[in-house]
From TrEMBL:
It comes from the Bacteria. Residues 263-304 are annotated as: Disordered. This is Cellulose biosynthesis protein BcsQ. Gene3D superfamilies: P-loop containing nucleotide triphosphate hydrolases (3.40.50.300). Residues 1-180 form the AAA domain. It comes from Prauserella shujinwangii.
Amino acid sequence: MHTVAVLSLKGGVGKTTVALGIASAALRRGARTLVGDLDPQGNATASLDPPLTDATLAEVLETPRLAVLDQAIAPSAWSDRLDVLVGSEELELLNEPGPDSKRMDNLARALDELRGSPRGEPYEIAILDCPPSLGRLTRSALIAADSALLVTEPTMYAVAGAERALEAIEAIRAEHNPRLRPVGVLVNRLRVRSYEHQYRIAELRESFGRLVMPTAIPDRLAVQQAQGACTPIHEWHSPGAQEIALTFNMVLAKILRSSRAGRHRLADDEPDEHPGTGGAGEVGEAETTSEFPAIREFAEREIG
């Protein structure tokens, strides 16, 4: 089971949209998928519309045992091949700031329990939708994950936010989880004809090189329409939805290539990456000009 943490540093950038888009792409490939909703807002849980459960992820983080997991996991309305590790507002009580907590590795323990005693057919991918902060919930997800995907918007604050997030990923990797790898920085809600958006993407690529994914998620109404209907984007039939679905296919392929877990049947027919909707040019350079030496070394190591 490959576990990916989807994170951002601010709300409203479409982080949950990306997590659900990746889940939709995994379903399209026939993968058994688990979505863990760590965001106290519970938007992923609402969109996947599982039945009521006797426990939630809050209880799992308190008691990471298989019996509690069984009570907190439910099938989604999307498919019997996609389950939800149900979120709740009570998660906010576990998200107070500070790196020290006895609960920090409980999510990793819970997912290890799930790997050791799968509920029927094993999950091939687990997607952790993190809250929009670097609090304990996000750090718990990074400790449990094989890879991390940072979601941002093409705004003037994107570079600073990406630098802080990548610093956190590097710290977790060094101190807690050496297998953790950054998938990259994914730009969401791109308006291709916006000069400001193109400028901000170029700024991100100047700072992070190939860590910025060569595809971006375009700003399309189809995303809100599909989520409102509790439907995977791959099953929403409109030109805008088809464009976004193809982009999520490529994001999933990149995630699976980021570790050995990507070398299974899901990656057999992965599409070649191309600039797609990114619109800011090819990403042929490996260098980064970040003013933070740690980030510069981190990026060069990951793309070298």
